[in-house]
Structures are given as structure tokens and as C-alpha cells.
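Issue 218. Parser rejects a valid record. Input:
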Amino acid sequence: MAAGTANFSSKNLDSNPMEMSKGIQIAGYPIKGLSIGGHETCVIFPTLNLAFDIGRCPQKAISQDFLFISHGHMDHIGGLPLYVATRGLYKMRPPTIVVPKSIKNDVENLLEVHRRLDQSELRCNLIGLEVGEELSLRRDLKVRVFRTYHVIDSQGYLLYSVKQKLKKDYLGLSGNEIKKLRLSGVEITYTITEPEVAFTGDTTSDFIVDENNIDVLRAKILVMESTFLENRVTVEHAREYGHTHLFEVGLLNIVIPVIPVFIQQLISYNFTSLSALYVDDPTQIINHAKKFKNKAILLIHFSARYTTEEIQEAISTLPPPLAGRVSALTEGF
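Output the parser choked on:
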């Protein structure tokens, strides 16, 4: 991809009206992206200047300076060389790309192959992080890696807002007094971090019950996969392939004989369908609904077998405490 062929401003990267035209606004954040299970996943937060996974490298993703890769499956990482190359084409600064530490060398080797093929530098800042490690993105924003549970090495990313607050002892002081204290080396502030945005990538629902992921369930926005929606695919099947089923997210704990109408609409009332939903207590249907403290939840990575109407219908049946807080990314369906 020769740089001399580019005659456009980088603004052109965001101007195509046919590219990811829908977009959504959730909890104050505009969100762009596509996420179709097995095809491509790329979720973009333009105001944070970052994208989670790169899919086939949708146009809007190219202008994001930070990219976080959850795992090495092609529908999540396939467009990575093109992302780096296109930024070079437009003479944009090298992006910062975070990948699981276990695949960093493989990603570097992948880029090296494309450097030879493309006869270009493919400059980027490639960082490998593992669960529990953090990276500062700017003064008011950092990211921490959290554990997810897929069929290959995977990880999620949790963004924290970082704010400095004046200690109570100094609240009544004038600006000059505070300045003098600061110049004298007195620590007059303390740091507040709040979980802002969490992204799971592909995972089973085990990430929800991981005691180290409490902040993930407290983030203002949780972007999580829900590959399957109804009883044509069992929870057992979803878990076997490292995915989450909507039944695990949104059904209330109930005793078997008490089946509300909305659940009857979601599942065929037969033992085969129900048995795949049980956990240790055979009288209970899996329920994680009450664990989510997020202000908003964005479901992604639906199977390509579903239509937009089917996705929206399934979400509309979610009971309290999830009703009204859950949205779906349906671009491309």
C-alpha cells in the first residue's frame, strides 16, 4: 500500500455515509461498530479515540489511535494489518495496539510478513498485556485487562476514568495557599478511579461470576457478547464453543413449575431444552441478571442466523432488573 497513492485528508475516513451508518448513543457515549459472530467484530468509541477488536477493519476504526484486541480469532483480528497500513497511508501517527501477551510475538510476526508483502514500515506500538496489568492512555483514562473464558487465550478490557480530588483538609484554602503547598511538595490531592467502559470480547458467562471482575459489572457501560438468543441453541452448546447465551444473562431464578409467559415464548417447555439451563441446583434456571450493576449493557456478537427483528424481540423480553438497560449492536444484520 504505497503512501504516495493517498490524496485524501484523514477526515475522509469518517465521511462515508454508507459505512456503519446507524451508530448508537449509550450513557453519553456515541458507539459505532459491527459485531456478527464468526464474521467480524469491531466496537468503536470515537470520543475515547479507541476501538475494541478490529474485525475486517471498518473505515471508522482507522482514525482511532488505540486498538484493543481480545483474542486471535480471525473475525476479531483479521483486519489488523490493514488498520496499521491505512494509518500509514494517511500519514497518521503509529497506533497503539494492545494484544494478549501470549500472542504478541505471533502478531509481530504477522506484521513482519505484511511488511515484506506491502514493502512498507507498518509502524505501530504493539503492547502485550495479561490479566491484571494496566496501561495509562492519558491523564484521565487507563485500561486494565480482565479475565474472560473463551476456547483460546482471550481477555477483556476495562477502562477507568481517573480524577484528582482535593483532600478535605485543604478544601477551604485559597488558590494561592494551595499553590504554595503544592510547590512545597505537599500531596494535596487524592486519586479517584471509576470503571467506565468494559468490553468482553468472546467469552462464556463465567466472566460474570469471576470474583476479580466485580468492577466489570460496575462499569457505566458493559459491552458483552450474547451469541445465542433462543432455544434452538442450548446453553450447553454455547458454553462448549466459548460463548454466552442470553438465557444465562436475563432469566430470573424460578422453580420449574412456575414458567412465566415470556419465558414460554423464549423456550420450548420440554425437559431437553430446560436441562441445558440448569446449574448445580436442578430447580433453578441460571440467573446472572442481578449481578449487573452497569448503567447500560450493549450486547454484541449475535449469530448470523438471527435477524434484527429477532434480536430486538429477544431483548424486549428481558425482565427486571435488566429491562430498559440493555441495547443491541445490530449494524450489519
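Fixed in the parser; the record now loads. Residues 24-328 form a domain with the Metallo-beta-lactamase; Chain A fold (CATH 3.60.15.10).
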